[in-house]
Specification:
Blueprint: E1 3-12, E2 20-28, E3 33-38, H1 45-60, H2 67-79, H3 85-106, H4 111-114, E4 121-127, H5 137-149, E5 154-157, H6 165-179, E6 184-188, H7 195-205, E7 212-214, H8 222-231, E8 236-238, H9 245-253, E9 259-260, H10 270-282, E10 286-287, H11 297-306, E11 315-317, H12 322-325, E12 329-331, E13 334-336, E14 339-341, E15 350-352, H13 354-357
Parallel strand pairs: 4-5, 4-11, 5-6, 6-7, 7-8, 8-9, 9-10
Antiparallel strand pairs: 1-2, 2-3, 4-14, 12-15, 13-14
Helix pairs in contact: 1-3, 2-3, 5-6, 9-10
C-alpha cells in the first residue's frame, strides 16, 4: 500500500470552544482515505501541525505504510532521545489515519483489528469544562443538571476554577445536590502548584464522595503525587499531559496513581495506548483514556481502543462539542446517554465533510529559511 497524499487541517474553534483542532487526511494509491487527529495544545498548534506535515512527508517515503511500520520506522526512531508530547500527538494523528485506512480496506471496524473485542458498549463521562471564562457557577450547575437529564451518569467538573477554596467547596456541594448521589462526580484539579493546597482541597471534597481526583498536581511530579495518594481516600488519576512508556512505568513503580488517563492521541495513538494499558494492568491499575479532542476522529479512536482493553473503566466525552463538529463530519458510533455503541462501520466509523474542511487546510509559511544552522 503506497501513500499518495497527506493533508493537514488546522481548525480554529475558539469562537465557540476553548481550543483549536488539528486533523490529517491520508490517501492511498487505491483512493482509500484515512483520517487522523492531533492533540492540539494551546499556543502550540502550528508547531504540531508542522510535525504532522513532516511526518506525512516521511510516511510518503516508506515502502511499508502499515500502522506498525510507521511506528517502528518513523515514530520510534524519532522518540529515541527526543520525546515530546507535541511530536507524539502528531505521530498519533498519522498512526490513527493508517488504522482507519486498514479498517476500511479490510471492511472491519477498528476494534476488530486490535485484538479480542471485550465489549462494544463503552461507558463515557461528560466533561463539563467551562464554555467561556465568565461562565457562572449557576450556569455550570444548570448544565450539569441538563447533562444528567440527557442520560449521562458520570460528570467531571473543575472545582479549583472557583477559588478561593470556600467557593470551590460550595460549587462542588451544589453540583452534588443537583445531580444526586447516584451520579458519579469526577473532580479535576488541573494540576495545582502546591501539594499542601491539593491535600487540603481533597480532604474538604471527600464529603461529596467523588468518583476520582484528577491531576491534584502536575503529572511529572511523581514523588509528590505518590505522597498525596497515600494521604487521601479516593482514587488518584494522572497521565493526560505525558507521553512515553517510561513516564507511566515510573508512575506505577512509585504507586502514584490508581487510574492512568493518557490521551489516545497525545501518547502517540492506538498502539501506545494499548502498550500503556498492558503495563498498567500488570500493576493492577486501571485505564480511563483522556480525550480532549473532537467528537469525531479522536473520540472514535478512543472508543475503539477501549473496546479491547480489559482494565479500561470509562472514556472522556465533551457533549458540548457536538454542535460544532456536526458541521465538519459524522460519527457512525451511537452515543446514547452515557454509552457509546460500536457498530459495523469500517475503520474509525467517521465521515469527514471534505468541502467544509477545505478552507482549514494548513500550509507551512513560505518565508521560513529551511537551512540548518550549525
Amino acid at each position: 500500500m503506497a501513500i499518495r497524499k497527506v493533508s493537514t487541517y488546522l481548525v480554529d474553534a475558539t469562537e465557540e470552544l476553548p481550543k483549536k483542532f488539528i486533523f490529517c487526511r491520508v490517501e492511498t494509491d487505491d483512493g482509500t482515505v484515512g483520517w487522523g487527529e492531533a492533540y492540539a495544545i494551546p499556543c502550540r498548534e502550528r508547531g504540531i501541525a508542522e510535525f504532522v506535515k513532516g511526518l506525512g512527508d516521511m510516511l510518503l517515503s516508506l515502502d511499508d505504510t502499515s500502522p506498525q511500520s510507521f511506528r517502528n520506522n518513523v515514530k520510534d526512531w524519532y522518540d529515541n532521545g527526543h520525546l515530546s508530547i507535541d511530536f507524539s500527538s502528531a505521530a498519533g494523528a498519522i498512526e490513527i489515519a493508517l488504522w482507519d485506512i486498514r479498517g476500511k480496506q479490510e471492511g472491519k471496524p477498528l476494534c476488530e483489528l486490535l485484538g479480542p473485542v471485550l465489549t462494544r458498549s463503552i461507558p463515557l463521562y461528560a466533561n463539563m469544562e467551562s464554555r467561556k471564562p465568565d461562565e457562572s457557577i449557576d450556569q455550570l450547575v444548570e448544565r450539569c443538571i441538563a447533562i444528567k437529564q440527557h442520560g449521562f451518569d458520570a460528570v467531571k467538573i473543575y472545582p479549583m476554577e472557583h477559588e478561593p477554596l470556600d467557593n470551590a467547596i460550595e460549587f462542588v456541594r451544589r453540583v452534588r445536590q443537583a445531580i444526586g448521589n447516584e451520579t458519579h462526580l469526577l473532580l479535576d484539579f488541573w494540576a495545582l502548584e502546591s501539594p499542601d493546597d491539593a491535600l487540603q482541597a481533597a480532604h474538604e471534597f471527600a464529603q461529596f464522595n467523588p468518583f476520582w481526583l484528577e491531576e491534584p498536581i502536575a503529572g511529572e511530579r511523581i514523588n509528590e503525587m505518590a505522597k498525596i495518594r497515600r494521604k487521601v481516600n479516593m482514587p488518584i488519576v494522572t497521565g493526560e499531559r505525558q507521553s512515553g512508556l517510561h513516564h507511566f512505568r515510573s508512575v506505577l513503580d512509585n504507586e502514584a496513581a490508581d487510574i492512568l488517563n493518557p490521551d489516545i492521541i497525545g501518547v502517540g495513538g492506538v498502539q501506545d495506548m494499548i502498550e500503556i494499558s498492558r503495563l498498567a494492568e500488570s500493576y493492577g491499575v486501571s485505564i480511563s483514556p483522556h480525550c480532549w479532542n473532537s467528537t469525531l476522529v479522536g473520540t472514535a479512536a478512543m472508543i475503539h481502543t477501549i473496546a479491547v482493553l480489559p482494565n479500561a473503566i470509562i472514556g472522556e466525552y465533551f457533549p458540548h462539542y457536538e454542535p460544532f463538529f456536526a458541521e465538519l463530519g459524522e460519527l457512525h458510533i451511537d452515543i446514547t446517554s452515557s454509552i457509546a455503541t460500536i457498530g459495523d462501520a469500517p475503520g474509525l466509523g467517521v465521515s469527514m465533510y471534505e468541502d467544509a474542511l477545505a478552507s482549514h487546510e494548513y500550509y507551512s509559511p513560505e518565508n521560513i529559511n529551511s537551512r540548518y544552522i550549525r
